[in-house]
Description:
By secondary structure, the chain is of the alpha/beta class. The chain has helices at residues 56-66, 84-91, 109-118, 137-148, 163-171, 194-205, 216-219, 238-247, 270-280, 284-299, and strands at residues 28-32, 70-74, 97-101, 120-126, 153-157, 177-179, 209-212, 252-253. Strands 1-2-3-4-5-6-7-8 form an eight-stranded parallel β-sheet, with helices on both faces. Helix 2 links the parallel strand 2 (70-74) and strand 3. It is globular and about 50 Å long. The model has no long low-confidence stretch (mean pLDDT 95). (1E,3Z)-4-hydroxybuta-1,3-diene-1,2,4-tricarboxylic acid binds at residues 33, 76-78, 131, 157, 180, 218, 257, 261-262.
Amino acid sequence: MPFTKTPGWLDWYANPSRPAFRLPAGSVDAHCHVFGPGAAFPYAPSRKYTPCDASKEQLFALRDHLGFARNVVVQATCHGDDNRAMLDALVHSNGKARGVATVGRNVADDQLQAMHDAGVRGVRFNFVKRLVDFTPKDELADIAARIARFGWHVVVYFEAQDLPALWDFFTALPTAVVIDHMGRPDVTKPIDGPEFALFLRFMREHRNVWSKVSCPERLSVSGPPARDGERNAYRDVVPFARRVVEEFPDRVLWGSDWPHPNLTHHMPDDGLLVDFIPHIATTLELQHKLLVDNPMRLYWPEGKT
Ligand code: 0GY
């Protein structure tokens, strides 16, 4: 049966502009997804939304158009713990994609090994209540202990107000911990206010913690520029992302978040998103760390294939 996308869901931007910013050679888009296609890889019965299809071929075409060399494909909640669409993208990427999976406590070691062989290097724990049902922390801790043996890391997605309650759980994890979208700061609050200060303190005190400085389109209140040729979009997010890049240059990653799930008001032009990068990583050295050195260290530690 065909899937009908959630009402109000915006399709991804069909004709993204070519970025003005030239990405360094070997750049990695370290946070993106594939959705289905639903006819081949059905969406999970437990999902909280039904997306539009966004195939691996479309992802790879975007990668080439924007100038990236590699992708990290992150399992999206609409596929639950059925990782087949993500794994299919990895094995057809010609070594240019690595993945982050979602698994349950009952996953077998040989399944983890098969995922590792396909290119998975992490699992994602999602704490955003509109996206997932609650999973007990002891179950997540079990999973973390299992995947640590493969040298994987844990990607965590949560909202800023939930960091205090999650702090102890995160610090007990036995792996590197990668935070999605800077822990979703409220960018209408002061950058030096207590909420973002807590996030910075968390990164400062825990050297195994990394952050994706991604999703300005999700965090921004000021939004994209008017379509007047000016390409400096999402200005209100810039100081937050720049602060993270400058204080933790060796532990930051950037991702497009294509195909941008759950956006109902504004769908970004992915070319404009790439043009956001030099506003948050303002030197060639910072750009190279953010886009090449750091993601390669985490996802391709053995070097180029
Ligand atoms: C993102 C953000 C979102 C969704 C998911 O897996 C997902 O469904 O991650 C969101 O709705 O904020 O990183 O893609």
